[in-house]
Amino acid sequence: MGFSEFLGNGRVVTALRGMLSAERVPHAMLFSGPRGVGKFTLARMFAQAANCERLKDDFCGECDSCRRIALLADVQPLVEQGLAQRGERPDNSTVERIPLLIQTHPDVWAVVPDPVRAKDPVARPMLRMGQLRAVQRAAYFKPKGRRRVFILDGAETMRWDLSGIFLKILEEPPESATLILLAPNPFLLQSTIRSRCLQFSLAALTSEEVEEILRTRTQLNAEDRKLAAQYSEGCPGTALELDVAAVAALHRGALTVLERAVELRGISHLFASTSALAKSQEIAFENVLEVFYSLLTDLLDLSSSSSKKTLRNPALRRELETLSKKVDVAWITKAVEGFDVLHSRMRRNINRSLGLDAVAISLARPAPVPGNSDLR
């Protein structure tokens, strides 16, 4: 047991252990990195080490504190339990009055974006005022153990107009508490918050490292392990949760949209493809956009003169090579810009299907004029 179970990002782990050993733990830290790379796991391990009853810079996994904090390893059942206790259809005042807080140890809280309801959750869960105010009050309580730790997952979902609540804690930090913010990108947070946190960036693992994790923790065959490692892009948490068949179908569906968008033939089929992706209830739309970005990255690599062409979607190499001959860098740039605009407008609750349709139509290449093939 201990930090040795955390694979990858050894420098970050060493730095955290050094803080604990020297008893110079910061009041706020920001862990950034792609979804599934292990930010929450590392934060939970740090909470265990900060409160372990036997070790100073690591955790034994056997004492009462370690075992209770370890229950956060599977947080979803705890979230569902909290939502059930609040009621099936809470109104806004109830959501703020009874904030969703996950606590398996007196000194350790996990605060996750609130989906409001277990059934029919909101489209974009976020950290809410009630959760932030609860952390603000509890951060100054004296710990029963060694240190209070608050893990704020999805910190980027915090509304900017509520950041003042959080800033007050960072500007007047309690001596015996540490707040750990988790976000895919530090620049999604306000600069005033970033500047008050010690930042750690977690890098993706190699495909080989992810495959080894899958080999020891799953029953996947060798081929599916390889595909899962490739599709997860070095994020073991994502790989462990991956439905390989469903993800392969998603990537192929996104590639179909790009293929049909180039020549804009069979527009009804194009709209059917975009609608299927935009209205999927099983896959978050943010993840759909990430798939488009990965396909466009591969197209850019294939369009370059570089001899090193390690694709993110190797299973689709043949189709991507064919498509790369029909597009150029300008087309790829236009596609990226289109998806960037669509991503930025998601917070405004735009119609995602129509938004994806608009991007696809904008990528249509003009048909050549008969008898004027030499025109540019």
Draw up the topology in text.
Blueprint lengths: L9 H13 L5 E5 L6 H13 L12 H7 L5 H11 L5 H6 L4 E4 L2 E4 L17 H10 L9 E5 L10 H9 L5 E7 L7 H4 L3 E4 L5 H11 L4 H11 L3 H6 L2 H20 L3 H12 L6 H19 L13 H8 L4 H16 L7 H11 L14
Parallel strand pairs: 1-5, 1-6, 3-4, 4-5
Antiparallel strand pairs: 2-3
Uncertain regions: pLDDT < 50 for 5+ in a row?
372-376
Tell me the name of the CATH class of the largest domain. Answer: Alpha Beta
CATH homology superfamily name of the largest domain: P-loop containing nucleotide triphosphate hydrolases
Adjacency order of strands in the biggest sheet? 2-3-4-5-1-6
Say how many strands there are: 6
Largest sheet: 6 strands, mixed
Question: What is the overall pLDDT average?
Answer: 87
The helix content is 40-55%
Q: What is the number of helical segments per DSSP (H or I, 4+ residues)? A: 17
Kindly provide the radius of gyration, computed on alpha-carbon positions and rounded to a whole number of angstroms.
23 Å
**C-alpha end-to-end distance:** 65 Å
The CATH topology of the largest domain, please?
A: Rossmann fold
Domains, number: 3
CATH architecture classification name of the largest domain? 3-Layer(aba) Sandwich
Structural class: alpha/beta
- Overall, the morphology is globular
Relative strand content: 5-15%
Order of helices and strands: HEHHHHEEHEHEHEHHHHHHHHH
